[in-house]
Amino acid sequence: MENTIQELMDKVRLFCEERDWDQFHNPKDLAIGISTEANELLDIFRFKSIEQMHDLFQDMNKKEHIEEELADTLFFVLRFAQINNIDLAKALELKLKKNAIKYSVESSKGLNNKYNEL
What we know:
By secondary structure, the chain is an all-alpha fold.
């Protein structure tokens, strides 16, 4: 199943409109939703070794839980962009261009340093 970012945003918009949730979806509360859901995803991996994290993806129930938390995070990202008229594809393209300057292949390949440490 392939969807464009706009199609996903439209699905989220319709889902929320059917439930009259626009009244609850201001920038602050949507940003809180992004953070909350991302932290629920993070909590799954807390204190896990590399091997334990790998094992999570082998257990279909645990993998489904990971996918659900990731989808919840994406839901809030899409809704934030939709409500605030942000073109996510354009925003990502611009950010990638900026990051390409900060993290040139020559200076950052194979390194996990922050741009000001390169």
